[in-house]
Each structure stands twice: as structure tokens, then as C-alpha cells.
């Protein structure tokens, strides 16, 4: 049994065959999926999907790319939507200085506000940290994000960066990048993280693992990621599957039989 801790099934690339993909996921032993949102329209869609598919859980938040859209009314909308029992996290939120699609100051304000909201709603955070590690760490400390905790998703950083994330009390999630031929840092991090702080994810439809790179990703490929991590850590696949599933249930307070 596996849990995909991060996938975007509201993405328009699933519009043509979403139902079929959802059936396929279950047949691959994936027991639950956490689907973060990226903006207000995405939040509505994810929430609706979480009501249609038992195994799909929602995270609500405004992605750093979309931070220009953020206002206090976004927070009110999240408060309202979070009453659904299927909302398990605030995300994905954070900073992205690689693409800089929103001004950095706006991204920082949006991120800090979401941390406050996570504290208020007692929900863990799903954090996106791309080329902005120092500011992300500074903000989670200054906003006391350790009270809610959460996960740094699709972690791209070094062992030193991973150490800061773990010291701050957060989990680290790894995805398809561990299977890439040029993967050095993700492999080092996969080896380094204490197993009780590790989650797995696909980040579908992105980050498709080898040997399917270039295709649309979905949670059916999650076993390939778990197998690779087991190989890197010299562990049994079943053990990695079991512990990462338990970690995901603990973080998001999921009551599956895990
Ligand atoms: Zn994502």
C-alpha cells in the first residue's frame, strides 16, 4: 500500500481521461493521494474532486507562481473550504525564485499569510522551495511554522539544506528526480533522511520517473520511485512503502488502515 503525498489531478492534462486515471491508480496499490491546489479556481476543483473520489484528499493554498492573485479574501475562501473533512493541509505554498512568476516580495507575503492560516486551522503545510531556500527557512522560523509542521515537497536541495528542514521539524518528500540519470543531490538526500521523516510523491503530471520521462506522470508510477529509494537505502521495497505510508498518515492525520 502506497500514498502519493503530492499530485495535481486538477491539471487540465487530466481533463480528457481523469476517471480512467483514477481507476488505474487504485489498481497500482495507491491507497490515497494528496492533491495540493495552486490558485482559487484550482482549490474549488480539488475540493470537488475530493468529494467524488474517496481516496483523494485536498490541500488548499496559493502557489508562489500565483501569489499575485493572493488577497485577504483568499484566506477567507480557504477558511470556508477547509470545513470539508477532506482538507488535510495548506498548500502548496512557498517561494519560487527560479521562475519568479510573481514578485518576490508578494511571494513572501503570500507564504507568510498561509503559515499563519495553517496555524489557525491546525493543518500541516506543503512547501514548494525552489532557488529560495534561505528565505523559505527564514520565513518558516519567523512565522513559527514549526507549530503546524509539514513537508518540503519534491525536495531539490543538498544534504545541508535537508538538515535545516529536518531541524525545523519538517518532513521531506521525494519524487521522480531520484530516478533521473543525473540525480546526485536527490540520491544523497534519499540516503541521508531518517526513514521516519520521508514521504514519497509523483508531483503528477510533472516529474515522470525513468523509464517514462517525457510522458504525463500519474500515481501509477509511484512504485518505481519507491523501488529506487529502497535500492538507494539498501532496504526492502515493502519496508519503504510501509514506513512512508505511516509517515504520510501521521503528518496529514489520515485515518486509513495503515
Ligand atoms: Zn506541486
Write the layout of secondary structure elements.
Layout: E1 2-4, H1 18-27, E2 30-36, H2 40-52, E3 56-60, H3 72-81, E4 87-96, H4 104-121, E5 125-130, H5 133-142, E6 150-152, H6 159-167, E7 171-174, H7 185-192, E8 198-200, H8 222-233, H9 237-252
Helix pairs in contact: 2-3, 4-5, 8-9
The protein binds zinc ion.
Could you please describe the fold and organization of this structure?
The protein has helices at residues 18-27, 40-52, 72-81, 104-121, 133-142, 159-167, 185-192, 222-233, 237-252, and strands spanning 2-4, 30-36, 56-60, 87-96, 125-130, 150-152, 171-174, 198-200. It has 258 residues and is α/β, with parallel strands linked by helices. Strands 1-2-3-4-5-6-7-8 form an eight-stranded parallel β-sheet. Helix 5 links the parallel strand 5 (125-130) and strand 6 (150-152). Helix 8 (222-233) packs across helix 9 (237-252). The longest helix is centred in the middle third of the chain and has 18 residues, at 104-121. The protein is globular and about 45 Å long. The chain binds zinc ion.
SS class: alpha/beta
Most strands sheet: 8 strands, parallel
Domain count, please report it. 1
**Mean pLDDT value:** 95
Can you tag this structure with a few keywords?
258 residues, alpha/beta, TIM Barrel, 8-stranded parallel sheet, 9 helices, globular, binds zinc ion
